[in-house]
Write the structure tokens for this entry.
Amino acid sequence: MDVDLRQYDNLTINDNDVRNIVLSYLMHNCFKETAETFISCTGMKQPADYPVDIDKRKPIYNFALEGNALKAIELTNQLAPELLQENKDLHFDLLSLHFVELVRKRKCTEALVFAQNELTSFGKQDRYVEKLEFCRIAWHF
């Protein structure tokens, strides 16, 4: 599907919206010092829970980046018990990450048991079927 970029020629972009998007990105990716500098340079108001959110998010983010999804899940459940229940996509992605890590480490039996116990229930929902197919492909490598 080709997009005709001319449709955006007369679009007005609000500077505050751009700043909010940039700050959201920095906070989401736990770039605390950069976010603080950005807030200072732009004169934006610092969100009330900003430092606490980043400080809580950073260890979870690091565990996920390191491939330690179970620790990320555990810490998420401690800090925000309802989050993974409400955000099934995130929960599925973290579980899938753990499965891929088990396969990568050649822990095939453990990976198979984990998939049967933790991922099978997601197969009942169409939006997860394609992602589960990816897990199946990872299993064959």
Summary: Helices lie at 15-28, 32-42, 50-65, 69-79, 83-86, 88-104, 108-119, 126-140. The CA atoms of residues 7 and 13 lie 14 Å apart. The two ends are 33 Å apart (CA to CA).
